[in-house]
Amino acid sequence: STGALIVIAHKNDLTEFKETGLAVDAIISDQLIESIFYKNNPMHDGAVIISENKIAAARCILPVSSNMDLPPELGLRHRAAIGITEKNDSVAIIVSEQTGRISYCRNGELSLDIKASGLKTMLTEDFSVKRH
Predict the structure, then answer these.
(1) Which residues in 98-109 are b (16+ Cβ under 10 Å) and which e?
(2) What is the rounded distance in angstroms from the CA atom of residue 27 to the CA atom of residue 68?
C-alpha cells in the first residue's frame, strides 16, 4: 500500500517547511496527491503541505518529535507528524505504508487508525470553527 504524510497549515503558513521541499502550488485533487505519493515518484518521500486550499509543496522535510515516550513501532511519518504539530497549529494526516491505516495528528497528539468518515469530521471541526 502507499504511505502518505499530508500537513495542513492553519494560521501558521509553514513557510520554513515548504522551503525544504519542491514548490507545487496546485489545486488539491485526489489524483495529484495519489501521484505524488506513488512509490516510484521521486517526490513520494517527505510531506505534502497544504496551505490556503492549495497543495503548496511536496517532498518537505519535517522536524521529528523528540518525545522519548512514543511507542517504538511508530515510524518516521508518524514521528514527523507529531513533530510538526507540536510546533504550530497545523494538523497532519498520515497513511501507513505498512497497513494503509489513517492517523490524524494535532497539537502533537496522535489519533491512530481512524476511518475516512472520522477524518472528515476531525478536519471539519478543525477548519470550519475558529480554533483558539
Answers:
(1) eeeebbbbbeee
(2) 37
